[in-house]
C-alpha cells in the first residue's frame, strides 16, 4: 500500500505523463491533494454540529435525545452531504485506521491488533483501493514520455 504522500506523487506522475506541461500536472495533483486531504475533512468536521462546542451542541443547550433526533431529521439531506464529503477524504480513513491501530480511540485501547483490524477493515480497504486505482491508472493509460522531455 502506498502512503498518502506516495499517492500524491503517483498522481503527479500520472498527470505529468498525460498533460502537455509537467508544471500544470504538478499543480493539478497538488490541487486534488489539497481538496482530498485538507479541505474535505475540514468541511466534514466543521459542518458537524456536535464539533462546534466541546461537549456537543445539543448537550450544551440541554436538549434531550428524543428532541435531538427530531431536530436532526430536518437536516437529513445536510447530514448526508456532510458525511459524503467526509467519506471521500483519504485523510479521514487514514486517521480512523491509525487512531484504532494505536489505541487512541478508547474502545480499541489494549485490544489486539487483529481485533482492531477486523473492525476497521473498511478504512484499510478504502486506502488500498485508492492506491490500487492510482497504480492501475498509471499502467492502463498510454504513456507519453515526450511530455517529460524539455523543449
Automatic annotation (TrEMBL):
Record keyword Transmembrane present: yes
Transmembrane annotation, as ranges: 124-146
UniProt keyword list: Membrane, Plasmid, Transmembrane, Transmembrane helix
Protein name (Swiss-Prot/TrEMBL): Uncharacterized protein
Organism: Rhizobium sullae
Amino acid at each position: 500500500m502506498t502512503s498518502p504522500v506516495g499517492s500524491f506523487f503517483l498522481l503527479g506522475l500520472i498527470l505529468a505523463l498525460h498533460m502537455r506541461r509537467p508544471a500544470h500536472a504538478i499543480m493539478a495533483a497538488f490541487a486534488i491533494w489539497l481538496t482530498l486531504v485538507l479541505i474535505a475533512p475540514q468541511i466534514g468536521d466543521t459542518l458537524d454540529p456536535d464539533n462546534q462546542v466541546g461537549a456537543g451542541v445539543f448537550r450544551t443547550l440541554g436538549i434531550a435525545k428524543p428532541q435531538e433526533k427530531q431536530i436532526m431529521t430536518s437536516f437529513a439531506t445536510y447530514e448526508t452531504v456532510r458525511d459524503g464529503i467526509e467519506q471521500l477524504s483519504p485523510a479521514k480513513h487514514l486517521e480512523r485506521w491509525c487512531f484504532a491501530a494505536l489505541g487512541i480511540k478508547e474502545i480499541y485501547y489494549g485490544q489486539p491488533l487483529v481485533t482492531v483490524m477486523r473492525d476497521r477493515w473498511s478504512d484499510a480497504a478504502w486506502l488500498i483501493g485508492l492506491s490500487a486505482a492510482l497504480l492501475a491508472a498509471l499502467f492502463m493509460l498510454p504513456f507519453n514520455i515526450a511530455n517529460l522531455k524539455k523543449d
